Amino acid sequence: MDAAVLARLAPALxxxxxxxxxxxxxAEDALADLVGTVAGTLRAAVADHGAATLAVSGGRSPVAxxxxxxxxxxxxxxxxxxxxxxxxVADGHPDRNDRLVREHLLQGPAAAAQFVxxxxxxxxxxxxxxxxAAEARLAALPPADLVLLGMGADAHTASLFPGxxxxxxxxxxxxxxxxxxxxxPDPAPQPAHPRLSWTLPQLLRARALMLPLQGADKLATLxxxxxxxxxxxxxxxxxxxxxxxxxxxxxxxLPH
Length: 256
Ligand SMILES: O=C1O[C@H](COP(=O)(O)O)[C@@H](O)[C@H](O)[C@H]1O
Known about the structure:
single chain; Rossmann fold; 3-stranded antiparallel beta sheet
């Protein structure tokens, strides 16, 4: 991404959404800053109420964070880890977000954490059955102490995809469901599996939201979201629904 566009992004974000907590550490400190903040938030939650719930995103971006986080001295046995979205594809498939979490986060001492996948291991249920089972599993969990969000270059977050026929339901502030089946828009983004996704109200039950953003394409998208003069929180920009809200502290990492 053009350095000049990046230089304008942080001030533009802060002007539009002054409540956002922006972090822009030097490149060599970026991962340590992110891991330290995540670990500190989880330790504080355990100190406060004896346990912590961390909800993570899938995709490829979190791999470095997961591999660094799992080396942290955390009270792993007091942690519950879950996912904000899942791809509806067979158990063990390389595109499954739970596989990513098991392989890159829940290793070594971190394996002591309780993991609550959105789709149970075993034969793949129908999408509707998977959504109903995920709803029941999430209902049994306390609100997340921390949600680690991801964002696609199309401005989706969790699996709230622009153009999905299920997006309006997912972004409805009165939506009672914690998780919904999300059919993909046409043309479908890759990997083109239908999804399960946390809804906006479920994301906003969290105590903290964090988004580490990297990649020129995603920064360019964010620049377009901020520059939308009329309605940044439109169905075209699912991420903006989280950036604009003031109920839950939102920390955003930008590259330096
Ligand atoms: O499909 C997904 O995309 C987003 C972003 O993924 P990335 O590969 O660009 O990091 C991710 O946050 C979401 O959990 C995932 O299912």
